[in-house]
Amino acid sequence: MLRSILFTLLVVAVGEEAGWRGWMLPELQKRMSPLASTVLIGIVWGLWHYPLFVNGQYPEDPQMVFAKVGVCVLLGILFTWLYNRSGGNLLLAVVLHTALNNTVRVVPFTEYAGLGMMALLLVLVIVDRMWRRRGPASTGSNPAEPSDIEPS
């Protein structure tokens, strides 16, 4: 299990999060709301895993990539909220990615856990007003504060 955690941390999470949250999220948030940015990243992030379905790394059928896309969009809300609220701290996104990838090896996932996660994500979207674009000043130095710019 330690090998899995270290591999996830040092290879998977660092590599993916450098792209998703380190580069893509800040660039997209310059042009669109955190929620729209999250949906776009979630789709790309989910499709990124398609080869793992095809080569047998994931035991599910390749068409399950669509479920993976949905999960990535939903989890992306948590990642975006954490990234923006931490002032763009990429290390926190890497740690969250590592934790999520390895938690299922220790804690079984139930429908109640899924419902709880959905409730948390809905609260984050509403409380953080993630549908609103961030102003130019908040995109770079303090992405935690939404601006009064309405979606276009």
From TrEMBL:
The keyword Hydrolase applies. It is an enzyme of class 3 (hydrolase). Its EC number is 3.4.-.-. Pfam families: Rce1-like. GO terms for molecular function: hydrolase activity. This is CPBP family intramembrane glutamic endopeptidase. Residues 4-101 form the CAAX prenyl protease 2/Lysostaphin resistance protein A-like domain. InterPro entries: MmRce1-like, Rce1/LyrA-like_dom. It comes from the Bacteria. The chain crosses the membrane at residues 34-53, 65-83, 109-127. Coiled coil: none annotated. The keyword Cell wall biogenesis/degradation does not apply. Keywords: Hydrolase, Membrane, Transmembrane, Transmembrane helix.
